[in-house]
Design a protein that fits this description.
Strand content: under 5%
Order of helices and strands: HHHHHHHHHHHHHHHHHHHH
Number of domains: 2
Structural class: mainly alpha
Shape: elongated
């Protein structure tokens, strides 16, 4: 079953890459780039579809021909969408259809992907509500039943069972919901940037930190862990009367290097994200210069258009071209310095259009349309998933409050009966579970904070943010729990 699921998810990732891959191929063919070169451009991406196109190119270079290689690619997949795409590519290669057929197919697949995303957003909202309910209602009711029931009717739940429930069974319910959310998420939801801790991301983080005047090396990262370990030991000493809280504080501090790296990875992509927002407008602006400007003059016009980081990079490219650098090399530098896949894709399309002598206006319009289509799915995803993101963020504060109030109410009942001279905990069954329940609840809240961070990262399609969320959620949840309880857990 696991192998079948992995195969189906790979097939889903293949289908998710079809709209952008087919649109890129159509755009390059529209500006006069030969089919073989356009296919090679589609093979340079990071999607599953790009990998399949790379295999098609290798088989074609080995002598089998593009048509036969596409037929073999169609036979390898069980996706009907991919089979239609390969058939359309084969017809386009043989001259039976034009690039417009690929663009129409890409538009159809893009609409289908948006429909799946809307369906997932509805399902994810229900899963988010189920996650908050399971993380709040179940432990509160179980704790009240275990402590109060044992107080009046003898030991209903043993301390070992209480720890097992809060330390394993209840977190397992949360993990099951997270797994269901991950399995039901469409492949198009995944983030398109470099992978977490990948070489490309590490280089981007290092360049970002260096631009701030800080030298970052592997040795400095290794030294961060002993420093955090020392801070963790200090936390143990400061919170000595509460060993469980001390352990959790130490875990939070030990998590800080990974959280810091995740935050740096997010901030290092900020300039690229700002540049991507300007990309369609900048390209459409340049397309209006068709007939009265060259490619080099269009680049200079974009640099003076006030397009933020994108304009700055185009200004640098314009200066390089004035110094004698070729247009394709200057465009390649723009995408490389920004580290944006969308900008690299648009600049690559302009470079190949320049080399083939294509019309400037047509090339710029095709690049702009491609960029608009590339970004629209991301913006729609963010809008659809905003509700459950805020639900989970609110739940990170709500669950500790409710659990703390329940624990406080249980201990308050004990104190009230003791003041009246007739505590129901005289038997010792409930009295022992009070302190054990507080400790188990504290451990459960720590697991809830980590699970909430992971669930939020999965829902956003960026699991790398889970470390940063956990670094914030872990101390916040415990602090809110202590405030609602009225004192530190034992």
């Amino acid at each position: 079953m696991a192998a079948l699921d992995l195969f189906s998810r790979r097939q889903a990732r293949l289908e998710a890459g079809l709209p952008h891959g087919l649109r890129l191929l159509a755009s390059e063919l529209e500006v006069g780039i030969p089919f073989e070169e356009a296919l090679g451009s589609a093979a340079r991406g990071s999607s599953v579809f790009s990998g399949e196109m790379a295999r098609v190119c290798r088989e074609a270079r080995a002598g089998s021909g593009i048509h036969d290689a596409l037929l073999r690619a169609s036979a390898r997949t069980g996706s009907l969408q991919a089979k239609r795409a390969y058939a359309a590519l084969a017809r386009c290669y043989s001259g039976e259809d034009g690039p417009s057929s690929l663009k129409s197919l890409a538009t159809e697949y893009s609409r289908l992907g948006r429909a799946r995303l809307k369906e997932h957003a509805s399902r994810a909202s229900m899963l988010g509500i189920a996650f908050i309910s399971a993380s709040c209602v179940l432990p509160s009711l179980f704790l009240a039943f275990a402590v109060l029931g044992s107080s009046f009717m003898g030991e209903i739940v043993s301390p070992e069972t209480l720890w097992l429930s809060f330390g394993a069974l209840l977190p397992a319910v949360l993990l099951a919901i997270i797994l269901l959310a991950w399995l039901s998420a469409p492949a198009a939801q995944s983030s398109g940037g470099p992978g977490f801790l990948s070489r490309g991301e590490r280089e981007r983080v290092r360049a970002f930190v260096s631009s701030k005047g800080i030298r970052l090396s592997g040795a400095s990262l290794l030294l961060a862990f002993p420093a955090c370990a020392a801070s963790a030991l200090a936390a143990f000493a400061a919170l000595g009367p509460s060993p469980l809280l001390a352990a959790l504080a130490g875990a939070s501090i030990l998590l800080s290097p990974l959280a810091l790296y995740a935050l740096l990875a997010h901030f290092s992509g900020g300039r690229a994200r700002r540049a991507e927002r300007f990309l369609p407008d900048a390209l459409l602006h340049a397309s209006s210069l068709a007939g009265c400007a060259s490619f080099e003059e269009a680049v200079a016009s974009i640099s003076r258009g006030g397009y933020g980081p994108l304009g700055e990079e185009f200004a640098a490219a314009s200066r390089r071209m004035q110094a004698g650098e070729a247009f394709p090399a200057a465009m390649e530098g723009v995408g490389a310095r920004l580290g944006s896949e969308a900008v690299c894709r648009a600049c690559g399309l302009l470079s190949r259009a320049y080399e083939t002598g294509a019309d400037l206006g047509e090339a710029m319009r095709e690049a702009a349309d491609d960029a608009v289509e590339l970004f629209s799915s991301g913006r729609e995803k963010a809008a659809l998933l905003a509700t459950q993101r805020y639900t989970l963020l609110a739940g990170a504060a709500l669950v500790p409050v409710i659990l703390g109030l329940v624990c406080g109410a249980v201990t308050g009942i004990s104190a009230s009966f003791e003041e009246a001279g007739g505590s129901p905990f005289d038997s010792g069954a409930g009295q022992g579970l009070v302190s054990e329940g507080l400790r188990a609840s504290t451990l459960y809240l720590a697991m809830f904070a980590v699970a909430s961070s992971l669930f939020l990262g999965v829902q956003e399609g960026e699991p790398k943010k889970a470390a940063a969320y956990a670094f914030a959620f872990l101390p916040l949840s415990l602090a809110i729990f202590s405030l609602a309880l009225g004192r530190l857990p034992p």
